[in-house]
Amino acid sequence: MAEETKKYLYLVTHGTETPERSASPFFLATTAALMDHESTMVFTITATSLLKKGVPETLHIKETGDSSTLQFFIEQAREAGVKLYVCAPSLDLNNCTLEDLIEIDGVVGGTALNEMAAEADVVITF
């Protein structure tokens, strides 16, 4: 019997102020996608800052030692098919526009985010 595809929603709320927290949501979302589940990430509050152009290439997960940048984790997620969305109000909070961000799959408001959460089998927040 084939396993049913599940919907995973990762709600990311922490941004560049806590770089050590930035890789885990991408890692877990990538893992879900590689397990053939639908995997979606929504960035809100300060997490939208992680998606600003220039940030992923320069944000190191660890301050010292051999540290991957956030770009590595974003590339893995994209290759696995993870969808990336930002919460509309967080654009203003982070003083940015869509043009300031890396390529994403869309912008969601409160209603859409609530619907995504209601339809998900699993919701994980960071």
TrEMBL record:
Alphabetical list of InterPro entries matching this protein: DsrEFH-like, Sulphur_relay_DsrE/F-like
Coiled-coil stretches: none
Name this polypeptide is given: Sulfur reduction protein DsrE
